[in-house]
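so my prof wants the structure for this chain in the tokens format not the other one, which i didnt know existed until like an hour ago. anyway here's the sequence
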Amino acid sequence: MQPQNCAPEEDHPISGPYATQNGQYAGKSVVGQGYDFGVVRPNPYQEDFRAQARKGFVKKVYAIVCTQLIFTIALVWIFNATETDKKLVDEKLVLTRAGKWVLYTSIALIFTISIALGCFFQYARKVPTNYILLFIYTLAFSFVCVCACARYNPNYVISAALNTFGITAVLTAYARITKTEITYGGAVKFMLIWLVISIPIMIVVGVNGNRFSGLYAFLQLLVIILYGFFIVWDTKLIVGQKRSGHQLDLDEYILGALFLYTDIINLFLRILGAGGKKD
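here's what i got, hopefully its the right format
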């Protein structure tokens, strides 16, 4: 029975940034989920906090990547300036025994740490274990670059590095500006198309050797495009994708740095191997 002094409740239209055309809140209803609180309003302060946290995450990842790249450049320069890299290759530009030991050990470390950080996420989130593993990974990849650069003219190495920097900057700007989101399904489709195009060329080049130099150059271009896609994809994972939700967690900054650093170095090595005169 309703009290006499109380007027029956009426639905009043709602105005404001969260109102729809019919005067209702634009939020998620929790009715029917064990709660009867009506409608949950979006919290602008929480959204702003998430945006600021993502910006801090992006800055941290790029600071780590820049440190990795500076370390790699410095190590390559030191080996070249002191002519220590000459001990890694002989006069015919073939790896010496020491060069093979350095290269194969570095590759083994790269694969081992990639599996440790990519498959066991507790190592990627635990400090200082994640930093130590990332440093060893960077050191190993830097020695791979030392072995590769020792076989080429220094001027061509600098040119390849500048081209890599330019391509990375353009692709990063594109990934940050474009509103198009890349889903896992889209990435798989791209990989399948890439494999359909590249595998026949790999077979022809592998069977016939250097007789099809044009196909070999085209294959190198396809590989460069592949690593360019990886840069865009990993940049999207770092900066975040709101609609699809495909993004790295805020405590996975080491994985973000590892992904992006690997993409950039592999792009550099592909550009380096695509042409140029050796010593």
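also thought this was worth mentioning. The beta strands are 28-29, 39-40.
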